[in-house]
Amino acid sequence: MPGENLSRDEAQERAALLSVDGYEVSLDLRSAVGTAEAGARTFRSVTTIRFRCSEPGAATFADLIAPSVTAVSLNGRDLDPGEVFDGTRIRLEDLAAENELVVDAQCAYSRTGEGMHRFVDPEDGETYLYTQYEPADSRRVFANFEQPDLKAPFRFEARAPEGWVVWSNGVGELTDGVWKFAETKPISTYITAIVAGPYHYVTDGYSRTFDDGTTLEIPLGAMCRKGLAPHFDADDVFLVTKQGLDFFHDHFDYPYPFGKYDQAFVPEYNLGAMENPGLVTFREEYIFRGKVTQASYEGRANVVLHEMAHMWFGDLVTMEWWDDLWLKESFADFMGAFALVGATRFKDGWITFANRRKAWAYRADQLPSTHPVTADIRDLQDAKLNFDGITYAKGASVLKQLVAYVGQDAFLEGARRYFKRNAYGNTRLGDLLSALEETSGRDLATWSRAWLQTAGVNSLTPQVILGADGRVAELSVLQEAAESHPELRPHRVAVGLYRRETRPDGETGPLVRYARVETDVDGPRTVVGELAGADAPELVLVNDDDLTYCKIRFDETSLATLRELLGDITDPLARALCWSALWNLTRDGLMPARDFVGLVLRFAGRESDIGVLQTLHAWADSALTHYVAPDWRETGGRLLAEGALKELRLAEPGSQHQLAWARFFAAVASGPDDLRLLQDLLDGTAKIDGLDVDQELRWALLEPLAAHGVADESALAAELARDDTASGKRHQVRCLAARPSAAVKAQAWAQVVESDTLSNALVEATIAGFSQASQRELIAPYADKYFAAIERIWAERSIQIGMDVVRGLFPSLRDSQETLDATDAWLAAHESAAPALRRLVLEARDDLARALRGQRHDAGTAG
Questions:
Q1: For the chain, what is the mean pLDDT?
Q2: Cα gap 384→701, rounded to integer Å
Q3: Maximal C-alpha separation, the chain
Q4: Out of 298, 307, 719, 843, which one is annotated catalytic?
Q5: Is 487 a catalytic residue?
């Protein structure tokens, strides 16, 4: 991997030297057909680049990662590939003012989801191709200048096996056996795209007439593997797509600029989705093979809208270098939720944002690798790791705070000016801020320094002093920051006061908000004068309505109220914010983890929002796995299983809540009776009214049976025969690796660590099955093997596989001081290791240290 890196300094030097006029790329994909083993490993790629040089006679390089180069020509002069190509770069010397570079190469098909990924469907033997490039893998498919600020128009053509269809960013047509595509607008290399194969393809259209009388027609398409066609609800994808296009046209005042709008759901995808203009790619798991909850449909809609927002934030206007990745990802994350609530049926999108997305941000912002939203990205490895909770979710949260700070109208008008001034260009932080300053009339320099250029998360805690009359004499908000990141930021917040409602019959009712003030919090202590004289609250919720980005804390009265009345809060967003705050208290070692488990057991059954419920299930499982004292795990697991089964039986038959509880019960089941019930549900000898045990749920029931030694290899083979699909194969591989056997673990380890034959999807599935919380002793011996292997893995494998292995196989389940010491020893002995690798190990170490602190707190407060 080091030879494939590109530094920011190199990119800046090349950008100062070159400007690119256009690319012509010709691919021959006819070698792709055949079985996974028999198919060719390479395809022919011929690229012509026309570019100018500001310093004739200078030297530079083009990027290409390929097994071999057949020919290189610069300005009609043939160059010796053996001399100018080193496997990752093509050296170019004695440049003219105007240049033409032609590169004829043999590029490799990928099995790791990077470059030109090739997938053979085990169900029908069909082969499917797609590309994935961000941040810098288009050089695996064609020669180029791989950096975001060297934009250019692209013209692609491709030869493909007979019967295939090929798609790219522009409209394509088949002429004399060649798929030829319309030239794109100037775009960056990383958002070009090719999808090819016998995909199932559905079409629709979008039309919009603007106030000036002009009409925009956008052809819409959506595709997936033929094996998934029976499950493909393209109509719902098109519905959200049209709603999103209307919403962004209403708010951005800049028509969608890239012609058609295809959306491809592709196999073995590393990401959620990618914003290639005119050809957005998604992981095919967004096509649901079985019954799922509304949270899954909401999640898919959010991703569709996130990628659509990129058409403006990222594709039309692109950051100059990856330091300003937030200029596209933070905005897309914010706009995804903004459009979700404003344009679709998912009106509770901000609840999901507060509960799920921000939890991701809070974790990332407390790691030793935390960074400002505008990060210091030295090279491509830094860039790859910065697609994280800070760049996405914290950045989006900061933008939500900015909207509260400058006003929605000023924010959107600033965005409109930003698009029009910088269309098809590249920008930095200051370009956006200057537009927003114009429209809001505010000086954003101080705001930017506090929110975009410093790291860390603040904690806001209410302090209530009651007067002799029992009313609020003074209410203030205390702000704290970690010693490592001491910045105290300005916050625009809402402070809500809650108390039990008194019914006409004198009985107490639910917890409701009876007072709310929106105010500016700045510095260590802010008095909220408007709340003086209010009735005494039972609960004070700082950051009510989730306007800012902070960790909410509680005063003693409020925390006591939540312990008794959390389920009585009527507002679902307020309730979600309280759950999130309680989880942060647990992760920070300020609340015993068993208390959080108890709150979930007591109140989760009353949670109306299905997304929040599923998040609570994940948090409770994490609390049991990582944060409770080891001697309470068995008790906690039994209590969670009992509680989950109780709620499963109480849930409305056929409801999404019933499905969520069924999946959670399977996740925590461990006792003989629980496992017997899972087996009986699989066999059909037991039934729960309304619960449809479809194929996806069958695999969810099988994994714990495999992990506890109840389902053996033959049972898993029989299930694969029942579901002999690509999805079924991934499930089977995960379940096989989950079995409680030393031989099984040795085989799984060898397949992932000692071999590179597995695809990215099967690597992910094997790692997931290998690491079972119920098998701590069985996998403990692999801790030493992990530290011995990771530097080699990082050097030899692709960065995606390297990340999967380093993160997924870290011995977090051997949660002891011994493991922490071993991690520290590796870090001390490998100070010169790749910074990105050290970052991953440091993050894993921090999670482990946090878990050990939580366990000590849980043990110390047990009684």
A1: 95
A2: 35
A3: 94
A4: 307
A5: no
